[in-house]
Amino acid sequence: MATAIDLDSMRRSFYDEVQSLAIAQFESDQYRKILSIPLTTARAQRYVLQKGFWNLNRRDCWAFAQGLAPMDVKALIWDHELDELQGNDARGVEDHYSLQVRQAATIGLTREDFENEKPADETLTCIYAYIHLARDSHWLKSVASCAALEVSNSADWVPEGGMSYRWGKKQEAELGIPFDKQINAKEHAEVDVEHGALINNVVNAHCDTPEKFDLVMEGLKESWALDRAWKGCLANLLLALPDPE
Length: 245
Prior knowledge:
Shape: globular
Number of domains: 1
Largest sheet: none
Structural class: mainly alpha
CATH class: Mainly Alpha
Helix content: over 70%
CATH superfamily: Heme oxygenase-like
CATH topology: Heme Oxygenase, Chain A
Distance between the termini: 66 Å
């Protein structure tokens, strides 16, 4: 009985820390910087084209995590990735990369623009770092490193909304693109609430010692450190373009 009470206490403390860290992402210098940059169409285009490489990289990272994980967690990741790779018939949306490409038409981009884009040096560095973290870690740390970005994009964890929501509202305010017309941002603002719960399922099923909680926390923290670096890189790429007139 005492063990169960201790485990419940560990879980509560763990989830409290996870939420605090997820919220803190948006208080970091890198997040504040990118969300404060005045948008132009050219800056929005650069953002989404470089982010395209990051989106494809997420699929690779989740695949590495799935390969390392036990069978029940493989199934959780399978369900998670169906939305990303196949879309959702019930919601009438295609795979999320295609959804992103389709939304990009609102800022004048085509699929050919995505195909012709080259990753910036900073983008390449960040996506290789993410692959290393997912591929070369203990499975708990690997899964957590992937789930971290779902957590910090979920309104269940971050009450004011994640990056998909905030960037969509920023484009609405500064470029005049209604949020409801931003189909990719709208989709992620909704589904990442569900996706953000994956880490709870993994922790509740598999974390029964302090060491296992520590592995998950390491994965979350290191992934969020890379995420901050990535947002800082993106901010600098946008600032290299002219300010609005």
